[in-house]
């Protein structure tokens, strides 16, 4: 099961004795700050968790799987995530 935004709000609310509105505002503000930083090309580094980074992908040749026709896929930006060593150790049980 995935950790959803709604579940994250509930956990913040119950663990910090906050109202649902306060918890929602915190989560929404955090996400908006991260989106704005990534949209402007900045990395988002959360110590002990990992780093979100925007990378530029070049134009490349692709194929339409339905028709088999070759086509050029346009250049685009993608968000990547690299986890920290602490998160990697926690995931791997070390």
Task: Explain how this protein is built.
There is one protein chain. The mean pLDDT is 95. The longest helix has 20 residues, at 20-39. The chain has 2 domains: 1-41; 43-94, HU Protein, Chain A (Irregular). Helix 1 (5-16) packs across helix 2. A hairpin with a 3-residue loop joins strand 1 (44-46) and strand 2 (50-57). The two termini are 23 Å apart. Helices cover 41% and strands 29% of the residues. The strands form 2 sheets. It has a 3-stranded antiparallel β-sheet. Strands 3-4 form a two-stranded antiparallel ribbon. The chain is elongated, with a radius of gyration of 19 Å. It has 3 helices and 5 strands. With 94 residues, the chain is an alpha+beta fold.
Portion of residues within helices: 40-55%
Strand arrangement in the largest pleated sheet: 1-2-5
Order of helices and strands: HHEEEEEH
| Class inferred from helices and paired strands | alpha+beta
Biggest sheet features: 3 strands, antiparallel
Using only C-alpha atoms, the radius of gyration works out to: 19 Å
Question: How far do the termini sit from each other?
Answer: 23 Å
């Amino acid at each position: 099961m995935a950790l959803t935004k709604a579940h994250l709000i509930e956990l913040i609310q119950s663990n910090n004795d906050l109202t649902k509105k306060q918890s929602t505002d915190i989560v929404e503000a955090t996400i908006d700050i991260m989106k704005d930083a990534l949209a402007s090309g900045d990395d988002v580094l959360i110590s002990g968790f990992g780093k979100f980074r925007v990378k530029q992908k070049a134009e490349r040749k692709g194929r339409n799987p339905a028709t088999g026709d070759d086509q050029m896929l346009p250049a685009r930006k993608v968000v990547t995530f690299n986890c920290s060593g602490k998160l990697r150790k926690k995931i791997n049980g070390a």
